[in-house]
Write a structure and sequence with these properties.
By secondary structure, this protein is an alpha+beta fold. 36% of the residues lie in helices and 25% in strands. It has one domain. It has 2 helices and 5 strands, in the order αβββαββ. The strands form 2 sheets. Strands 1-2-3 form a 3-stranded antiparallel beta sheet, with helices on one face. The chain has a two-stranded antiparallel sheet with strand order 4-5. The chain is globular.
Amino acid sequence: MALSKRDAIHVDDLERYDEFLKTVTGRQYLHFYKENSLIKIDVHNYPSDELTHSGEFKPSPNADAFFKQMEDIEDEDAALQESSSDALESREACQGGGVLWLQLTLR
């Protein structure tokens, strides 16, 4: 089962975490990370990337598993982007003489 950001926050800090999230507007994004045995959340304005405010929270026993899960997702995403880029290069290599050859694989 996938862990959420909330799962990474210690139960003693959940109410404060929920209140902190209520301060985030639709034109902002969160940078969620672990530093010095705390979970830190930076709130940035979009698109300027200006830091507006930050919060620090105690990690839950699931915090390490959450961050490992996020690392795995980032690795999978990078691999998909790389293979997608390779596929585009292969398709472009098939173009020549005004003809585009496409190979389809049916499942």
